[in-house]
Amino acid sequence: MEAFVLLGMPRACITGLGRYVPPKVVKNDDLRQWFDTSDEWIYTRSGIRERRWVEEPASTAELGYYAAREALARAGKSPQDIDLIIFATLSPDMYFPGSGVLLQHKLGLETTPALDIRQQCSGFVYGLSIADQYIRTGMYKTILLVGAEIQSTWIDYHPEGRTVGVLFGDGAGAAVIEATEEPGRGILSTHLYSQGAYAMELCVAEPSSATRRHELPGSYGMRPYMNGKEVFRHAVQRMGEAVQVALATQGWQPEEVDLYVLHQANIRIVQAVAEFFSLPMEKFYNNIHKYGNTTAASIPICLAEAWAEGRLKKGDKVIVAAFGSGFTWGSAALVW
Ligand code: UT7
After folding, report:
1. Domain-located, residue 205
2. Residue 234 lies inside a defined structural domain of this protein
3. Whose alpha carbon is nearest atom 25 of ligand 1?
4. Residues near ligand 1 with C-beta < 6 Å?
5. Is the pTM of this model over 0.90?
6. Cα 306 to Cα 311: distance, rounded to the nearest angstrom
7. Is residue 325 in some structural domain?
8. Residue 230 Cα, ligand 1 centroid: separation in angstroms?
9. Based on the structure, what is the number of domains in the chain?
10. Ligand 1 centroid – CA 41 distance (Å)
11. Ligand 1 centre and the CA of 325: distance in Å?
12. How far is the CA of 287 from the centre of ligand 1 (A)?
């Protein structure tokens, strides 16, 4: 790989990070107005203490815009420098078009391509991989990757919605990814997987292209479904495998990685992966206690906060990994 870099094939490097979370804090106990639940149950089962929810009406593209502005400023770039926007979300503003074009317009851009991707919690990792390929081939030099979600509007506030409803939050994260010819830096490898056999284990099945049932009396409507235990079991296994393949590809030992950033779905998933590799939890950046599961936004929010706290320094070895609905999962190995 180093030979390619020397021959002039650029690598993709994250040069700016930003994040935005809505100001409204919703604590676990606040959820008791809808659900038979408790702070103790939510915290011990998931590690979540509170999450952020938007005030309605709100726009996913707008959340992404705030995060993007911060990422661009930190990279010293203006919107006009962007060659491609990749927008990862499971909660777009509209059924169609995607939120990427809305963000493009908000940024004051005229015809910059905007690509929406539907990879749920793995959206940021998939987006990194897509950005990496475009930059390596030389097609684009500067890519804006955004993960943004408004999930408080699809939560099922009926009593039976409590298992899913207590886990999710709103927010956005963004990364500016640029071509670099500096040897040894940037995204070294990405590893993507999916398994549609499990599509129905974690989904919002309506509105759907298959039926108009959601318009009919007695319809199930827009309600999320999750087979929590099954998803948890797969998440631990697949996230562990995704970290393993990144380590093996780079020839890194688990302990020589400076920071692991795993999708924030449940702190117990991160603990299980840490235990599997005999690593201390200090090697993992976590903020699930503050934001819950922000799906495609979770990894870029973590990266932005880790960077702001000085936990991402030039030359650091970093592995990011995610698992989510689809099922989709994957990882990336980077040198900061
Ligand atoms: O981001 C995509 C990936 N998502 C994930 O990876 C999430 C994976 N799954 C999980 O994180 C966990 O399965 C949950 C946090 C969703 C649930 O934890 P669990 O330990 O698997 O709990 P459970 O579903 O087995 O529920 C245990 C009990 C049940 O009561 P019974 O049947 O034992 O009487 C539930 O009805 O807890 C009850 N329960 C609740 N109690 C209070 C379920 N939800 C709640 C709630 N508050 N919100």
Report:
1. yes
2. yes
3. 229
4. 35, 37, 41, 45-46, 121, 162-163, 166, 228-229, 231-232, 235, 265-266, 269, 293, 324
5. yes
6. 5
7. yes
8. 11
9. 2
10. 9
11. 16
12. 20
55 and 63 Cβ atoms separated by less than 8 Å: no
**Atom 45, ligand 1: which residue's CA is nearest?**
163
pLDDT given for residue 216 in this prediction: 65
The SS3 call for residue 231 is helix
Ligand 1, atom 41, lies closest to the CA of 37
Cα–Cα distance for residue pair 61/91, rounded to 1 Å: 10
> What is the model's pLDDT at position 3?
42
Tell me the residue range of the domain where 320 lies.
Answer: 186-335
Give the whole-angstrom CA distance, residue 281 versus residue 197. 32
Q: How far apart are CA 19 and CA 149, in angstroms?
A: 12
Amino acid of residue 188? L
What pLDDT, in 10s, does the model give residues 220-244? 567 899 999 999 999 999 999 999 9
H or E segment and range at residue 74:
helix 60-75
Asked if residue 218 and residue 92 are part of one domain, the reply reads no
Residue 75 belongs to domain with CATH number: 3.40.47.10
Separation of CA 139 from chain center: 24
Helix (H) or strand (E) holding 230: helix 228-250
The whole-chain average pLDDT of the chain stands at: 95
List the residue whose alpha carbon is closest to atom 12 of ligand 1. Answer: 228
Active site residues: 121, 263, 293
